[in-house]
């Protein structure tokens, strides 16, 4: 599996109170695989496969996603979200000419619903504003909770997208 690029600095120079951000390393792969699998739990629950087949499928899908992110976003910041010494999520951000693009933001199921995602996005939005940029992302059309979160934060639908993903953009 491809390795994370080595970067000393992150795109964010601050984190919400109670959290820290650090660059992802290859040592994080087991956590990231589990995080990915958990993010697809509801979807996979409807698939009548044995557990071993589900796990193999999710491992292969994670490997493909990881390779895609590294090849298409070679200059991105791949960050692990930490609460104390415990990893609770990932935040992958690509700095573009006009925007900071959120490639992925995921939190463990146990850490969702506590305001961490909103807090991370607000920090990212402040960083973008300080750089004279907006923030873009793509949200699954099948995730109404995420739609509501981004709308509360001031994101609007952007042109484009496909049957699975809705592009959204925030501008200060």
Q: Segments where pLDDT lies below 50 for 5+ residues?
A: none
Global Rg:
16 Å
Shape: globular
Tell me the number of helical segments per DSSP (H or I, 4 or more residues long). 5
- Taken together, the total number of domains comes to 1
What descriptive keywords fit this protein?
globular, seven-stranded mixed beta sheet, 5 helices, 172 residues, alpha+beta, 26% strand, Aminopeptidase
Outline:
The protein is of the alpha+beta class. The protein is 36% helix and 26% strand.
Helix-strand blueprint:
Layout: E1 20-23, H1 29-39, H2 41-45, H3 51-72, E2 77-83, E3 86-95, E4 99-107, H4 116-130, E5 134-140, H5 144-152, E6 156-157, E7 165-170
Parallel strand pairs: 4-5
Antiparallel strand pairs: 1-2, 2-3, 3-4, 5-7, 6-7
Helix pairs in contact: 1-3
Description:
This protein is an alpha+beta fold and about 170 residues long. The chain has one domain: Gcn5-related N-acetyltransferase (GNAT) (Aminopeptidase, 3-Layer(aba) Sandwich), CATH 3.40.630.30. Helix content is about 35%, strand content about 25%. It is built from 5 helices and 7 strands. The chain has helices at about 30-40, 40-45, 50-70, 115-130, 145-150; strands at about 20-25, 75-85, 85-95, 100-105, 135-140, 155, 165-170. Strands 1-2-3-4-5-7-6 form a 7-stranded mixed beta sheet, sandwiched between helices. Helix 1 crosses helix 3. The longest helix is centred in the middle third of the chain and has 22 residues, at about 50-70. The chain is globular, with a radius of gyration of 16 Å. The termini are far apart. The relative contact order is 0.14. The mean pLDDT is about 90. It comes from Luteibacter sahnii. GO terms for molecular function: acyltransferase activity. It is an enzyme of class 2 (transferase).
């Amino acid at each position: 599996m491809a390795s994370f690029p080595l970067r000393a600095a992150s795109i964010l120079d601050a984190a919400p109170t109670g959290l820290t951000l650090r660059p992802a390393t290859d040592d994080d792969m087991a956590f990231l695989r589990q995080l990915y699998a958990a993010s697809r739990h509801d979807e996979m629950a409807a698939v009548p496969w044995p557990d071993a087949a589900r796990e193999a499928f999710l491992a292969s899908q994670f490997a493909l996603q990881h390779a895609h992110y590294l090849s298409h976003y070679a200059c991105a910041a791949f960050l692990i979200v930490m609460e104390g010494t415990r990893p609770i999520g990932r935040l992958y951000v690509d700095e573009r000419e006009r925007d900071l693009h959120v490639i992925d933001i995921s939190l463990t199921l146990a850490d969702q619903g506590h305001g961490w995602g909103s807090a991370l996005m607000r920090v990212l939005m402040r960083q973008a504003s300080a750089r004279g940029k907006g923030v873009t992302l793509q949200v699954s059309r099948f995730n109404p909770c995420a739609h509501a979160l981004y709308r509360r934060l001031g994101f609007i639908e952007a042109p484009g997208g496909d049957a699975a993903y809705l592009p959204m953009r925030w501008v200060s």
